Amino acid sequence: MTRLPPASSQQPESAALLNRVELSGVLIERKALRFTPAGVPVTECLIGHQSEQLEAGSNRRVECEVPAIALGDTAHWLQAASPGTRLQLSGFLAARSRHSRQPRLHVTKIEFVEGNQDAKVLQEEG
């Protein structure tokens, strides 16, 4: 296992702990709403993303599918979206489980882009 070097003493501690993701894409699929043993609603989904990014001075076409999960009120909002809906999501990355270190986007904010000319935030947790 490769370990990351310690954070530089010149960086503020909060910068070393940054974990923030913003992603636009299309809802490819979503699973049925379920509840944790504590009664918290959970929705899992797959987001398809396509864009063009500048990398090392050249344009690069990016296409990927990102697994995501939403809890609480955010899960209800995501559950209401149909596959094919354009979304802008914010959240953080965390491992899928203790047994799988694969990253998954934990959604904390959803913007429904389609039919929303000013990209108004329709839901935000916190």
Please describe what this structure looks like.
It is a single chain. The chain is mostly beta strands and 126 residues long. It has a single domain, classed as OB fold (Dihydrolipoamide Acetyltransferase, E2P) (Beta Barrel), CATH 2.40.50. The protein is 9% helix and 50% strand. The protein contains two helices and seven strands. It has helices spanning 13-16, 73-79, and strands spanning 21-30, 34-35, 41-55, 58-71, 86-95, 103-112, 123-124. It has a five-stranded mixed barrel. The protein is globular and about 50 Å long. Residues 116-121 have low confidence and may be disordered.
CATH 4th-level superfamily: Nucleic acid-binding proteins
Order of helices and strands: HEEEEHEEE
Mean pLDDT: 86
Report strand order across the widest sheet: 1-3-4-6-5
Number of strands: 7
Percent of residues in beta strands? over 45%
Overall helicity: under 10%
Radius of gyration: 17 Å
Shape: globular
Task: Describe the structure concisely for a colleague.
This protein has helices at 13-16, 73-79; strands spanning 21-30, 34-35, 41-55, 58-71, 86-95, 103-112, 123-124. With 126 residues, it is mostly beta strands.
